[in-house]
Amino acid sequence: MTRTSRACGWLLGLALTWAAGQAAALEPERFSLAFEAGYQGLNAASDSAKAVFDGSTGGTTFGGSARVGLGRLFFVGAGARFFSKDGQRVYLADAASPVYPLGHPLELQLRPIYGFAGVRLFSESSLVPYLAVGGGATSYKETSTVGGVTEEVSESKGTFLVMLGVDWRLHRNVSLGIEGRYTSISDAIGLAGVSKIYGEDNLGGFSFAGRLGFGR
Q: pTM surpassing 0.85?
């Protein structure tokens, strides 16, 4: 065997090994874990949020999720996130009146826990768009201090969400992604205070988050 033929054989072997590695890398993930962080908007209660949080309608959210693949296209999963924001109690006579800050601290916490099912597009590509819908429950907690006395309201409400995102597979086991979602948390507020005046009862809204995933 000549040097040229041996060299060609080595090159062919390397090419086949690389191709096999690439094929394996692009196999759809059977299981993955992801860490997520981004921005959560309270768009469904924007007037109430602006009044209580000094003009802001959202803040930082973070959490994680797990997925299990069902073949090449479909997957199911579960996840949880955490959102917390500090503001203050305010007074207004009606929805058209000016907002008067009262200086009493208020903290809002949301902890959604949910399951979901979805479909992946172009699952064998390095860029994998996906769409999913799901539901679960959100723990709502509001803590405020007035005159040195701390009051707490805590309850759990049903949650519905739609997720649209894309994962960029850097390696067969590692991916980066971005996800947008809309969440509905109906009947969470609106019984008293600012939200009753504005007629808002949903603490849902749009969120955007980056994802760091590890799968196999």
A: no
The DSSP annotation for 81-106 comes to EEEEEEEEEEE-SSTTSPPEEEEEEE
- For residue 51, with 0-12 CB atoms within 10 Å meaning exposed, 13-18 middle and 19 or more buried, which class applies? buried
Measured at the CA of 140, the angle between CA 138 and CA 144, to 5 degrees, comes to 170
Is beta strand 149-171 parallel, antiparallel or unpaired with respect to 127-146?
antiparallel
**CA–CA distance, 154 with 68 (Å, rounded to integer):** 32
- CATH number listed for the domain at residues 28-215: 2.40.160.20
Q: Give Cα 192 to chain centroid, integer Å.
A: 28
Tens of pLDDT, residue by residue over 52-92, are: 999 999 999 999 999 999 988 999 999 999 999 999 999 99
Query: What is the pLDDT at residue 13?
Result: 54
What single DSSP character describes residue 199? T
| Contact indicator for 116, 130 with CB cutoff of 8 Å | no
170 three-state secondary structure = strand
Phi, psi of 14 (to 5 degrees): -65, -40
Q: What is the pLDDT of residues 116-140, one digit of tens each?
A: 999 998 777 788 999 999 999 999 9
Give SS3 for 60. strand
Q: Which residue has the tokens 């949880």?
A: 80
